[in-house]
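Note to self: keep these together.
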Amino acid sequence: MSHLKKLKMPPLDIIFSVLFGAALVFALWKCPFGFGSYDDAFYLTIPHRLSMGDVLFADEWHVSQMAGLITTPLVWLYRTITGSTDGILLSARYVYVVFHALVSLFCYLRTKKYGLASIAAALSWFLFAPYDIMALSYNTMAMDFILVSGLLLATFETRWCWALSGLCLAGAVLCCPYFAAVWFLYAVGVGIHILWMRQKTVANETSSDILSSSRLLWLTAGAAVAAALFFLYIMLTCGIRGVLDSLPHILSDPEHQGMALTVKLQNAWHNLVHCHPLFQYVLIGFLVLLLVLLADRNRKTRRSIYFTASCALTLISYTLFWPDAVNTYYNAIMLPLLFVGLTAFFLCQQRPWGLFVTLFLGGIVYAVAVTLGSNNFFYAISMACAVTNAVSLLFVGQLLREMVEEQNGSASITWPFRAALSAAALTVAVLLTLQVRVKALHCFMDDPPSALTFQLQEGPAHGIRTTEHRAEVYERLNGELQIYKTLPQGKLLILNERSWCCLATDPMEYATFSAWISGENQAALDRLECYYQLNPDKTPDYIFLSKNSLFDDSAAILSAAQSQGYTLTESEFSYYLAR
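Structure:
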């Protein structure tokens, strides 16, 4: 009997297991719904072409390409086992759910000391997928790597964990190159901390082992190993010359036009402040609250009031975003809790400095970094706030634990304390309810799940459910592309914005700078011309052009191709060129 008692799960673990199990079933249920045709398929095209022998930079010109190196082994394994790419989109979604679930589980296990807040943090993290795209992408992987890296650095006291944190940091940088700045900022912080402590005989509340030189050293060692392996890959594939030749074309992507960093930050801030007509007043209210809080030397005696006020501002934000959360404000769900998190941190007596440095400040750095590399501004910022959202819940847990301990020593429970507990419970409940509601009703670039009644039966999207119209378009186009399964293997140029088409013609090789051909216009054709001048070996053996293409002058494309020796075959919906 004593052994059975030892095996008994703690109540916290039981609650987490039940809720997380339900969330996992919910996520797996959601996987088949929605066919956006573009983003989730595009995420697979880069590892797909790499698995067939193409290389980064020289062969692929999209700015987000480095993240594809991480998922290449998975795509190679899938193609090796199945012999095709049929069903790869749905399978990739399931892989994402499993990977994301493991990261969320790790988050709970490393933060259990925060009690129910650790459950809320893990659940909120698991329920959110950037833009509601359930796929291993440069967005989802970056945030998962950042969370794991921060937890390894802040919650472990072993060197190998700090080195592993560096490896995860390197993974995040592959997904978001601007995030490399976080290492330099951390190194500066460590340096300042060391100089500061040399002048102090007694450590004050700002001192923390998180800023130790040992942590920095082993973090750097782990990141350096990853960097060395990446550099070796570059040298063995395209070489430095290949990178330098391709880089100007990569950075001239029409969808990511060159813009001064200051201008980008100004645009991002403007989009943030004006994301909703009333949101600027919430920001002003929080700024005033934070200034008053920091100026109050006796804030401990009034922390229930400050905390309740910050929860009220967050709830107002949720109210603003709620009506359009299923569409416009999906990513915005992650933003408002930053108010509560920052307030809770400054109100804590025992401040979790490790998590603050690695995940709260690191999350803000990531929000800035992802904005600099994106054209989505507010949507990118709010998406990145998922990192600060998770750690903010932990700060709330720490604060409430201190306040409960304080109340246990009092003769009676005060009304401000009751208000603070109620505000915290309501804020977390609204957050999780909003996340579940949105996930249940929203599908990226598709109708709600209840309207997705047609299941695709063939090709890379096999098993996915969509509308009757989208199913007809997909099945017709997928059928037209099947001709390439019967032709000798060669290089294929698909002049079509639907990135899944490249997956549908496996094992045809890519004859394009990217499966993401922005806009199907003259700019794309000009980029293709530059691409073939730099990579003559990528000149296509086959060209596929849909008759409903958005290119301005299909006749000119066909004429130019025929003048270069391509023969034309025409079907009801498409043109086929071969040489």
